[in-house]
Amino acid sequence: MTTTSTSATTTISTASSSPATPSMSSGTGTAPITHTFSPPPVHGLKPPGKLNTSGNLADAWKSYKQVWENYCLISGLNSQTEEYKVAFFLHCLGTEGLKIYNGFQFDNEPDRKILAKVLEKFDEFTLGQTNETYERYVFNVFRKNRNPLTPMSLFSEISQSHAISASACVTLLSRTALS
Questions:
Q1: Cβ contacts of residue 121 below 8 Å, gap of 6+?
Q2: Cβ-count burial of 115 within 10 angstroms (0-12 exposed, 13-18 middle, 19+ buried)?
Q3: Domain map of the chain by residue range?
Q4: pLDDT in tens, 104-145
Q5: How many CB atoms lie within 10 A of CB 103?
Q6: Distance between CA 159 and CA 90 in Å, rounded?
Q7: Helices 166-178 and 132-145, interaxial angle, to 10°?
Q8: What pTM, to 2 d.p., does this model score?
């Protein structure tokens, strides 16, 4: 008995040499029997929804990317062509995600059709840079609307709301204390 396995199927081949087995044209009396088993389909598996671009984009992207990578593994999408994977990824992202993608500058045009390069660009866009102007705006809105708060209670309230990262909040608080 021979067993061959790939990520999508398992094949088991057996050869019988009993006299009752009809002989093949070679006259050896053995006939290979092959059975192929595919993994069971995952019922209810849906592609990821749209990327949430409101609020903290860095956190939304981290979660979205993890869901996307799990979906690719479970659904077998990783076995598709790069162009197909990118097209499906962009479809799942939704209109706002597509607008972000269309704004990316790639080193060369073929990189637009390689999923790893596209994911790298989204990482750079969402995680690689902090939008200090936006964080300053959110911080100042919180500060103005909650004027009697001490710096530490302001920090606690902003960081708990996840409006901006805790490190950005500390930076902005230190700048505010100096002015």
A1: 101, 104, 106
A2: buried
A3: 2-37, 57-128, 132-178
A4: 999 999 999 999 999 999 998 888 655 565 666 666 666 666
A5: 9
A6: 31
A7: 70
A8: 0.53
3-state secondary structure at position 134: helix
| Torsion angles phi and psi, residue 103, rounded to 5 | -85, -10
48-81, pLDDT tens digit by residue? 999 998 888 888 999 999 999 999 999 999 999 9
Closest CA to 17 of 9, 7, 8, 26: 26
Q: Per the structure block, which two tokens stand in for 139?
A: 């911080």
Q: Which amino acid is at 36?
A: T
Alpha helix locations (H) across the chain?
57-75, 82-93, 95-102, 115-123, 132-145, 151-161, 166-178
